[in-house]
Amino acid sequence: MAMGQLPNPVLKTVFPAGGQAGSTVEVAVSGSRLDGLTSLVFSHPEIVVKALEKSRFEITIPAEVPTGHYDVRALGRNGLSSPRTFVVGAGKEFIEAEPNNTASDAQAVPLNVTINGRIDKGGDEDRYRFSAKKGQRVVIECASERLDARLRAVIEVHDADGKRVAVNRGFFGIDPLIVFDAPADGSYVVRVFDLVFSGSADHVYRLEIDTGPRVAFAVPPVVQAGRTSRVTLYGWNLPRRDLAAVGSGEETSLREKRVVESSTRSAYDHIEVEITPPKELRSAQTPLRLRSSQVAVNAFAYRFPGSSAPLAIGVTDVPVVAALSANHSSSTAREVSVPCEISGQLIAGDELDYYTVNAKRGEVLWIEALGERIGSPVDLDLSILDATGKRELARFSDEKRNIGGKPFPTRHLDPSGRWVAPADGRYLILIRNLIGSLDDDPRRVYRLSVRREVPDFDLAILSRNNAPASLNVSRGGRTVVDVLAFRRRGLTGSIRVTAKNLPAGIECPDVWLGPGVNRVPFTVTASDRVKPFVGMLQLVGETESTGLREVYGGTAIGAGAPLATGRLTMGIPIAVVGEAPLSIAADGHETRKHDLYGELKVRHSPGSILDVAVHVDRKDPGHNADVEITGIGLPSAIRNQTATIPAGKKKGYISFYLPPTLPTGTYTIAIQATTTVPVSTGGKPGKPKTVTVFSDPVTFEVHPAAFTLEIDRNAPKTIRRGEYLQVKFTGRRVNGFINKMHTEMTAPGGVIGLRARGTSFVGQTDSGSLQIIANENAPLGKQPFVRFYAVGVVEDQPVFHGSVFLDLEIVE
Amino acid sequence: MRRKLVRSVTMRNNTENRRSAMRLVFAVGLVCAGICGAEAASPARFATDIVPILTKHGCNSGGCHGKATGRNGFKLSLFGFDPKFDYVSLVTEARGRRLFTSDPDRSLLLQKAVGRIPHGGGRRLERDSADYAVLRDWIRRGAVGPQAGDPVAVGITVFPKQQVLGTNVTQPLRVFAQFSNGVERNVTDRSVFEANDPQIAGVDEDGLVTTAAVGGQFAILVRYGDSIGVFQATVPFHPDQASGNLTASEAAGLSKIDGHLLLGWRRMGIRPSKDASDATFIRRATLDICGTLPTAKEITSYTSDRRQDKRARLIDRLLERDEYAGYFASKWSDILQNRGSGYSTRQQRAGTTLFSAWIRDSLAENKPYDKFVSEILTATGRQDQNPPTIWYRSVRTTPEYVESIAQAFLGVRIQCAQCHHHPAERWSQADYYSLAAVFARIGRKGGFADAEVPTDEIIYLKHEGQVVHPRSGEVMKPRPLGGPDFKLSRFDDPRRSLARWMTAPENPFFARTMANRMWGHFMGRGIIHPIDDARSTNPPSNPELLDELAREFVAGKYDVKHLIRVITNSAAYRLAAMPNDSNGDDVRNFARFYPRRMPAEVLLDGMSQVLDVPTVFPGGPGTFPSGTKAIDLPDENVAINFLDVFGRPARTSACECERTDAPALAQALELVGSKEIQRKLTAKEGFIEKLATNEISHTENVRNIFLRVMARPPRAEETKVAVQFLDGESDRGEAYRSLVWSLLATNEFLFNH
Description:
The complex is a heterodimer of chains A (812) and B (753). Chain A is globular. In chain A, strand 15 (153-158) and strand 16 (164-168) form a beta hairpin. Chain A has 812 residues and is mainly beta. In chain A, the strands form 16 sheets. In chain A, strands 36, 37, 38, 39, 40, 41, 42, 43, 44, 45 and 46 form an 11-stranded mixed beta sheet that branches. Chain B has 753 residues and is of the alpha+beta class. Among the domains of chain B are: 46-140, no CATH class; 151-235, Immunoglobulins (Immunoglobulin-like, Sandwich), CATH 2.60.40; 368-503, no CATH class; 510-556, no CATH class; 684-752, no CATH class. Chain B is 43% helix and 8% strand. Chain B has 30 helices and 14 strands. In chain B, helix 9 packs parallel to helix 11.
C-alpha cells in the first residue's frame, strides 16, 4: 500500500519534443520518479497516446490540432509529472542520427524540415547538410530554451569548403536563428552545438531549415479585441507585396523605406495583412508559450498562411493607436486620448517617442509599457513631463516585485505606474529604451497603455515546493498549491478564488487573497471514495469591482539550474493517486464559553487573536507520533507560530495575533502539519517516514476594531508557583467605541494552573491591571497562546473582541 | 642674457643648426628688447618663480615632500601642480614657522635647504646660488602668495626641438616659457631636465645634454611648472652613412611606408638586412596573422610559387582563414579583459564565450575598427543580446573605465592623473575626472548574482550619476581628453559622444594607437614603445611612418585587414632577422626582423600541430571538443600549466604588457618535464607513432620532420647528424621521439624569426 506523501515526478526529457500535425510519432520520455508510467497527458485533448514498452509512447496528432506549443505530462504511479513543452508543427519532421559530429558525417536533410536532435554529451556537435540554390533565402532556427530544454544552442552554416559563412547565438532570447541567403548553388552544412559545450539527454532541440514564410514580429504588436485591424508582419520569405491590398499612405511608405535602410544585419520582408482577433482577451487554451513574467500579456495565436508556427499578437480592450508619425521630440509629440493602447517602435537605440495627454487636476492615470514582455529587445523607461518637456513630473521603471520568487520569476523590465495630474493641462509622456545599441533595429516594438484607474488583476497557480510539478492529490488527502495574484491599476482589496465544474469527489473551498496579499494557499481535497483519475481544474477569481478572471496554470522549469525560470501552462490538470496517511481539519471559528456571556461567536479584527482548532484524523491505528503544526500563506503582517498536538491527542490549537495595522478584509490561510507515520515493508515495520499534510483553508474576515489592547512593556515575564503578580494594560478605544469592556486571561482549551482576575470598565477609562495567581502545582514553563482578552459590549451583547498574547513563564 | 645664448649657440658645430639658432636669437632679442628688462626687476611670483625652484631642487618630488603623505609633516603638491596648496603648506601651516619674513635667512625653509639645520633630504641649495637669492628676496618682501591676476605659464618651447647629434658631444638646451600676459621668458634655470635613455645621452640640471658612445634615439623631458617640453635627438650609428634625404628616383619606386622606413634607416646611418627566405616568410606571416604554424604542404607550395606577388597573395589568403579571427580574438580578449577567473566558471563561461565569439565574428567580418570600439564603449543590455557588455563585467569602477579606455584605444596611460597632475604629460586631474564623468551614469541591474560579479547583469544608462573632482569638489562635465565638454541632453549617453569623438578622422590618438598596436604586433615593437604609452616624452622612433600608417588606416575607413596588409607588405616585414654590420645595435628602426618567442597559446598549438595530437583542455561546464586550439579558448581560466609558464596573461589590465615573453627557468623545465608534451610525443594516434611505424627512410622522414617543425628542409649537415643518430638507436619510436623533441626545444622552433 502506497502510504505517505506522493513523490514528485519530474519530466526532464521528451524526445522528439514535437511532431507534425496529422502524423504519428514515437516519443521517449525520461525524468525522475516516473515509476509505473502508463500514459502521456497532452494539453490538447485530441492528441492520442498509445503506450509502447516502458517509457516509449506512440502519439497520433490529428491534422486539426493547431500548430503551437502544448504541454505534455507523464502519468505514472506517482501521478502526473511536471510539464514539458511539446510542439505541434506544420512541416515534415526528421530525427537526428549519430554519428554526425564532423562535416563528412553530416546528415543529409531536405529543405523545409524540422530536425529533432539532441546534444547528447559534453562536446557533442550535430551537423546537417542541405542544398540550396544561389539567392535562395533559407531560415535556420533552433528552439531549445522554448522547449524547456537545457541546450544553449549555437548554430553555424558552413559552405562546401568548410568555411563558416553564418553564425548565431540567440535571436528569440537565447534560441538562435540564421537568415541565410545562399551565395551560390551548392550544399551547406549546419552545425549545432552548445555555447559552453555542455550536453545531456535534456539538451534537446528542434532545428528548422525552412524556405517557407516565417513571421518574427508584428507592428502594431497589439490589436483591439474582436476588431478587424491592419497589421504589418515582419519576417522572411514573405510575399513582397500586400496580401490584403491595403492602400499605402505617406506614412506607410516612409516607414517601409526606413526599415529597409535600418535592417542591415538581417533584412526583413514585411507585409501588411488584415486580421480579426477573438473577442475575448485571452484563453488559457491558446498554444503559446508564456514565461512567468508574461502573466499579464494578453495575446492570441495568429497563423500566417504557410508558416510553421503561430505568432503571438497582443489583444487589448481599448482602442489601439499606431504611432506612425515621427514623434521624437517634445514639439512633435503625438496626442492620444485616454484610454488607449499605443503601438510604437524605437528603431534607433537612442530614439525618444513623445505623446501628449490632456488631464484635469486630480485625474489619475495608469501608464504601462510592454516591451521585454512581448519579446522586444528593449528596457523601456517612462517619464511624464510638463507641456514644455523641460520638467520631469514622474518616472516609471522596472517591475521589481517578484511574487513568484526564484523558481517562477515575475519581475521584468517593463515600467508602469500611477500618476495624478497636478493641474488641468497638457502633459507629455516620454518613452525610451535604456539599452539601445548603435545599430537600428526594427524589432524594438512596444505597447504603451494609458488608462484611468480601472483596477484589474491576473491569477496563476504554482506548486508550493519550488520544483517543477503538477497537481496530484491522494485519496482521502489534500494538496496545496499557491495562487499568485498580479494586481493591476490600483487593485488593493480581497480577491476571491473559486473552483468551477469540479470533478466528483474533489473539493476546493474558496480562498481569499486579502488586501495586499499576493500569494495564498489553495487546497484541493479528494474524498475517500473517489477513484483515481486525471481531470482539469477550472479556477476563477473575482473582486467586488471586476468580473471573473481565469486562473492560469504555472510551473517552474529546471529547478536547481542557476537560471531557473518558470512559465504558464495550458490549464490546470489534476490527478488523484494513492492514499493519504492522515488528514487534518482546521476551524478558525470555534466558539468559546464565557463566564458572563456564555457561547461566544468569533469576530476577528485588527488587535485580536485568530485561534485555529486543528483536528487530526490518524488513519493508521499504529500512528502515534506528535504532530507539529504551523501556518502557511499568512499575510506578511501576521507572525507565524508553531504548535504541537501530542501523540495520542486528536485536537490542538494554533493561534495568530492579528496586528492593529492589518487592513480589514477577507483572508485565507491554511495549516500545515508534519509528523512521522509508520511504514511497513513486506509486513515488517520499517523506518517511520516524515509526511506533511495540509488543512482545508481557514478563511476569516477582519472587521474594524473597537479597541486594541496593549500590555505594559515592563510587565513581569515570569511568575513563581504560588505567587501572584499584576500586569498593567491599556485598552485603546477606536472607531468611536465607548461602551463597557470586560477583561480576563484566557487560552484556547483553557488555562491550566493560572488564575486571573480581570476588570470591567466603562466610559473614558482605558487602562487597568490584571492580577494573575499561579497555583502551587502550576505546570512549569510557558503555556502556548495564553492571552489577555477583552470583550466589548453593546446593549449587553458581547460584540467586539480584542486580545494580545501574554508572555509569561511559570517558574519554581 | 643675449650674449649667453649666442655663446651657447656658437659652441655647436653644425652649420644648419647655427643658422636656425641665429634666427631664434634674433626673435628672442626682439621680444626681450621690449619686455625682459621690466620683467627681471619685478618681484618673484609664487607660482611661476618660487614653485619651479622647489621643483627643480626636488623638494616636491614623489620621493620627498611631494609624496601623497608628505615627508616629516611637510607636504607639497607633486611637482608643484597645485601652487595654492603649496603656498598654504609653506607659509601658513605649522603656525607659519617655515618662513621668517623679518630675517629671511633664518627661515626654516632656507636653513634646511642649505643644510644648516639637519634635513632628511640633505643639502639641496647653495647659499650663494641665484635660487637662494630669489627665495630669500621673496620671503623678505612678505612671501606673497599666488595672486588672482598673476600671469601663468601657458606653454614652453625647448630650443632646439630636434637635433641630429654625434656620439660623445654636448648640446645645451634652452627653455622659454610663454605667459598668459603675452610675455615670453627664458626659464632654463627654473626648468627640470630628464633623459629617457641615459645609455644614449644624459642631461645635467642646467640642461646640458651629453651623448654617449653609442647610436640611437633619445628624448629629454623638460618640465617648467606644469608645462612640459621635449627635446628629441638622433645619434646615427654610422654618421658617415647618415643622411636625411631620399633622391626622387629612390622615392619613386617605393610605397610611402617603405619610403619612410628607408628614410628612417638613412637617418640612423644603417642599412636593412636582406630579405628573409620564402620559408621563413611564410612561417612568420602564418604565425603572425593566424597564430598557427604553416603545414609542410603550404610551405612547399609557397616556396615553389614563382609569381611576383606571392607574398601579397599569401597575406590575403591568411587573412581569410578562420584562424586569423581566432588568433586576433584571443589578442583582443586579453586587451578587453575577457576574464573567466575569480568567480564560478560554470556561471561565467557563457559570458566570456559570447564575448570572445563576438570579437571573433567582428574580426572575421572585418568590422571597421571604429565600429568595433564604439560598440564596446557604448555597450548596453544583456550579454545574450549584446556580448560587448561583458567588457563592463570586468571593467567595473571609475578608474578602470578611464584607464582601460585611455590605454586600450587612445594609447595613453593616464593612471597618474587620478591622484595628481601627470608628471610627464599634460594630463591633469580635471582631464581624468572629466573623462570619468562620461561613465558616471553606467547602470547595472539584475543578473544572477555572484558575490562580486553578476552573471547576467544588464548594463544601462542611469538617470543620475556624477563624478566629483576629488580636490576641488567640482562636479565634472563629461569631456574627452583635451577636448571641450560634450554637448548633451539629459537623455544622451555621454559614451556615444565619446565614441564619436574617438573615431572622428581627426582624432589625434585613436587611429595612431591602433596603427602602432598592429605595427607592434607584426614587428615585435611599436613605433611608439610601449605601444600604449604615447606621450611627448616617449616619441615615435619614426614619426612620419606612424603618421602615414594612421593616415592609411583612417583613409581606409578603419579597415583592419587593410592595415595589416599595409604593414605585412612593407619592406620591413620581409627582412631577415640576421643583422648586418650596420644594424646590429638598432632596436627601434626595423632594419631587420626582431625575433620573438611565440606566444604561449601559439606555441602549444604549434606543438599540437607538429605532433598531430590536440591538447585536451579541461573546462566546465561542458567539454571542449577534441581539436580545440588554445587560441580558440574563450577565456584564460582554463588550467593549462604550459600556458601560464609561457606567459599567458591573467587579463586584469588593458595593457598588452601583461603578456610576458621573458625567458624563465620554469619554461625550460616545462619543455623537459611537461606531461602534456610527453603525452603528445607518445600518443598512439600522433606523428611520432607514424614515424616509428612507417616504412620510409630516415632521410625522407628527417626531411619531413624539419619541414613540419622548422618550416624548412634540413641542411645537409643536419640530415647527416640526424640520420646518424637514428641509425644508432635500437628503438625507432624512442629515437624519433628524441629527435623531434630536441627540435621542439630549439630557439629556431620556439621563436618567430
